[in-house]
Amino acid sequence: MPTIDIDGMGRIALPILPVQAERLVAIAEAAPYGRGEETVVDREVRRTWQVDPSKVRIGGRHWDQTLAGLVADTALGLGVSEPVTADFYKLLVYDTGSFFVDHRDTEKAPGMFATMVLVLPSTHGGGELVIKHLGREVVLDLRPEEPSEIGFAAFYADCVHEVRPVKTGCRLTLVYNLRFVDKRRPLKAPDYRAEHGRVVELLRNWASAEDEPDKLILPLQHAYTPAELSFSALKGADAGVASLLVKAAAEADCDLHLALVSIEESGSAEHTGYYGRRHRSRDEEEDEEFDVAEVIDRALILSEWRRPDGGEAGFDDFPFAEDELCPPDAFEDLEPDEQHFHEATGNEGASFERTYSRAGFVLWPTARRLAVLNQAGRRTTLPYLEDLTARWETSNASIQSPLWREADELSRHMLRSWPRSSWRADDDTDADRMLDLQVRLRNVERIDTFLAELSADGHYAAPDNGAIVRAAALLPVARTTELLVRIVRRNAPAHLSACGDLLLRCVAAPTGHLKQIGAALIDALPGDPTKREQVDAWTRPMPVKPGFVVDLVTATSRIDAGLAARAIEHLLAWPKTYAPDDVLVPAALALAKLLESNAWPAVGRLREASLDHLRRRIALPLEAPRDWTRTNPINCTCGDCRALGAFLVALDQKQWRLKAVQDRRTHVEQSARSAACDLDLTTERRGSPHTLVATKNQASYERRAKQRRRDLEHVSALGG
What we know:
By secondary structure, the chain is α+β, with helices and mostly antiparallel strands. Helix content is 38%, strand content 22%. The strands form seven sheets. The protein has a six-stranded antiparallel β-sheet. A hairpin with a 6-residue loop joins β26 (679-684) and β27 (691-696). α9 (430-441) runs parallel beside α11 (465-472). The longest helix is centred in the C-terminal third of the chain and has 19 residues, at 699-717. The radius of gyration is 40 Å and the shape is flat. It starts with a strand and ends with a helix.
C-alpha cells in the first residue's frame, strides 16, 4: 500500500473514511475531458472529481518497488518488451452518482501508449470499468477484496472505455500514463522467420500477377491520431506486424508506408429521434438519431503518410479503391469516428455526414511505384517529374539513363490518366508545365501524344500556347503542321482569341507550314451569329475581341498577303459578328500603331472599311432638341406606359407624374429604363402611395455628340 498525502488535508486513511471522502470532494475540482482539440467540463459526459497532481504526494517504504512490478506486469500483458515507465497523472474521486461515458484517452506525453488505473481500498458499489476494442467488451470490477489490496487495470489509450455510475460510497483511483522510455525505439520483432518467408512469397506472387490491384491496404488493430502515427509508436500486434512487413516488403521489392485510411460519406437522411422537441442546440442536433436514405457522395482517401525510417514520404492525399483493402470488408462493421445530422432547411432535405477512419499499412510493388504515385494526381506528380527532369539535366546523362526512363514512365502514366475535359480553370497551367517538361526531356513521343490526344481534342487554353509551339518544334515539320491544324480547327470555336495568339506565336518561331495553319484558322472563323452553336456542355462561344483581329491580320499578313485578304473579307462580310465599333475599328486603330502594317494590303482594306463606317455616321445630322418632344421607344401597351409614351412625344411637357402603388411604378420605371428613354426618373416619397416623377432630358443627343467627338478622333488617328 502507498501512503498518500494531500495539501490542505494531510494523509488519507485507507480504506478511505466517509468524512475524508467528503473533504476530498470539497477541495477537488470537476474533471474535464477532451472533445476534439478542446478540453471541456460537461457533467452530462463526465461527473468526476480530480485533485491536481502537484497537490498529491505518493510514498511508502516499498511503494516504488511495488509500482515497478505493476508496470512490468502491465507491459508484459500488453505485449511490450521495450523499457516502459509510469507517470502519475491524476487522483480521481468518484462519489455517489459519478461516472464517465465512453471515451478514448489522448496522448498526454511523447511516447505514451497506455493508461494504468489503480483503485484504492474504499467502500463503494458500482463504478465498474468497461473496456471495448474490436468488438470485444470487458467489464472489470476493480474493488479490492481486502483493505490491504489495490485493484489495477491497464489498457491501450486508444481503447474505448467508460466508468459506470457509482451507486454507493466513494471510488478513489490513481491514474498513471504508461510511456516508452525511448519513444524512438527501433522495432524488434519476435521470431517470425517462418511467417517472414511466407509473407515474402505472397508479396512476390501478388507483385507478379496482372489482375491484382496496384496497392494493398492492411488496416491496423489500434487507433492512432496523426500525431501518434509512426512505425516507432505502433502498439501490440500492430508493432509485430510492422516488424515483419518492413523486412518482408524490402525483400519482395515492395514499398511499405503507414497512412490514415478514411472513408467520407454524405447524403440524404431521415429523422428518427427527438420528435416533440422544438428547440435544440447544435450538439443535440448532431447527436440526433437518423436513418441513411441515400449515400450521394463517397470519398476514399489515404493521408498522413509515414515511411518505416521515419522520413517524410512527400505524398499528398491518395484515392483508393475498396478492392485494395485487405480484407475487403475491413470497414463493414466499423462505427463512424464522426457523424453529423442536419435538419431539413428551405429547399434542402435532411442530410448527414460521416467519416470512418483507421490507420493502415499501404503496400505496392516497387515496379509499380510510379503507377501508384500517379493516383495521387498532378499536384503530386508534376513536382516529382520536375525534380526528375532537373536531376537528369544536371547529370548530363543520355536518354538511356535510369533517370530519363523513370521520367518517361511517369509521363506515360500521367498522360494516360490526364482528364480529357475541355473545361479548364482560369489558373490551370498544368498543361504548360507538362509540355515544357517534355521539351526539356526532348521526349518527342510524349509530346506527340499530348498534342494529339489532349490539345487537339479540346483540352486547351491560351496559357498552353508558348509550350505548344516549343514542343511542336521538336517534331517533324509535316507532323507539326498536322497537329497545329487539328488544334486550331478543334479549339477555335470556343477559344478564338487563344488560337489567334497561337498562330502569331507560330509565325514568330516559325513552326510548321504556316500557310496551312493560317488557312485552318480562317476556315474556323465564325460567320452568321445566328448559327454559332455551343461547343460543348462547358464552353460557350465568346464574343470576338479586337485583339484577335490584330493577331489574325498580323500573322496572316506576315505569312501571305492573299491569306490576309481572305481573312479581312470574311470579317467584313459579317458585321454582326465582327461589330465595327466593338471589334473592327479598335483593331484598325491598334494596327495603325505598328509601323510594318503600313505596307500590308489587308490592313489598308480594314482601315478603309473602318473610315467608311465612321464617315457615314459623322454625316448624320446632329442637333440639340428645340422643344420637349422626345422619341417614344416604349413597346408596352398598358395604360401607364401608353400615358408615358404620350408624354414623351408632347412638345410642351417637361415633367410627368404617376401616383400609384409600387408595382405599377416599378413596371413603368423598368419599361423606361430598358428602352433608354430620355428621362430622369425619381420617386417622390410624400403621401401614400408614392409618386414616380419623370423629367425629360437630352441624353440621346448627348450620347450622339459624344460619339461624334470620338468618331472624329478615330478618323484622325486612321489618317482620314
